[in-house]
């Protein structure tokens, strides 16, 4: 890591030699003693490789001329000085140098400032390393894997040792003076490795002990934002982390802590609590100012009409600022009595001023419920005066769901026609198969529940229930014409002229199946073999003549559907019909009783036999 210098002696290999004959030279003893005394002190001071003091005589383009009290001045090249050192150096300044060569080939003294600085630096570095003390140095430039730091000699600062956190930008440290600990030295190779991270960590431990020893609840301290999460901010207060929770950042409402602070920012906070055992610190920012809810304007109270600005819009409502850092919520259900609003942003804008009614106020928990619709009259209050049960109405379909259709009676007031109240006879899979939004329909009001804001309507109630007179319309034994409406694995459903459906079971097809004989839409004649008005069932047979022997088929997993009973609305029950025993009609009046008895016996016998056969099979 150290610099490589070129010594002029490497290129000065031709030294002049002159043969002098000293045999004729004679020096007296007195002169010899005087010369010995003169040079004795000089050779003790001026020794090659020794650090000596001198002063700057002049500075020019060739370098720095230094006088060390010898017979000649030494010239130190400029490259041995840094730019900052040359800038600060002036004539007559004292300077320490190494006496490299007492006399070179030209008879000049050779001095080195860089070697003197390195020698002193190595001595100091070794001392600091042994004592575990930190060193200071100037970051000169970036090198592969780290930084070069001048601590008297070049030292290497690895990138992983620059800071406590991972550092990606090395360039920002160039030109800065840093303090670091010495990790490793190798004087022979001239290598020194230092760590700023270790120094900072050691300082952090000392600072942490000091802070934890002095910190107490209620203190107002400075800290730096270290990390931001969804629930709060971690503040570094001199090596100790404290949590600033999102609820303690502002008296108002924020969605994320990044709306208030940013990483690296220095902020002032208050210590709310301090757990010495677990070293957990809770901090507060809003506590530095007064609670606006405690000093709320007396005019803001339940039932008062106030004005405010919309601060934010969510899917569930509007937040309205009615005072500085005081917000109330207008829930989406409190926006309008009439309009069915799905997107509040279509109707309102942030910053818009609106008038609201205070519905509830909880200062302790800083909650306020507001309403817009309650500024006007509730149309449901008078709905029972405008509509009566049994009344026929006309309205437009406002919405269609899988359980029914909503019909608008008045602006903001809809009635529901449940899917079970659409038809007496038809099985409707989904109301949209038959109705469209915006279509005008006629219905009958079935119930009015003003308190729960519900009105039940019926369309099928506009006509008479065809099952009411089914026993008079379809007597047992009667031959009727019907259309195949549906084929299942247990038989076929036949739509009769009045719209009701009867079942032709596979058990009455003499071993065949309905899908082998019929197709949906096919018209044929059938004979009624049994009627159950209570369960809304009619049994049919293909035999148009002969004795009626209805089968009691085995129960199937896929039971024959009940044309309408299974779709009845849960809260409302239809009046139970009286069950009447159907009788086969005969032309001869004198044989009526006999035929009735024979039919009943045959029917009971057939059902009993079928039950026995079924039990054996099971």
Describe this structure in words.
- By secondary structure, this protein is α+β, with helices and mostly antiparallel strands.
- Helix content is 16%, strand content 33%.
- It is built from 8 helices and 30 strands.
- It has helices spanning 29-45, 83-88, 113-131, 196-214, 383-386, 470-473, 514-517, 592-617, and strands at 51-60, 63-67, 74-76, 94-101, 110-112, 135-143, 146-150, 154-158, 177-186, 191-195, 220-228, 232-236, 241-245, 266-275, 280-284, 305-313, 317-323, 326-331, 353-362, 367-371, 392-401, 404-410, 413-418, 440-449, 454-458, 479-487, 491-495, 501-505, 523-532, 537-541.
- The strands form 6 sheets. The protein has a 5-stranded antiparallel β-sheet with strand order 3-2-1-4-5.
- The longest helix has 26 residues, at 592-617.
- The protein starts with 28 loop residues before the first helix and ends with a helix.
- Mean pLDDT is 79; it is low at 551-618.
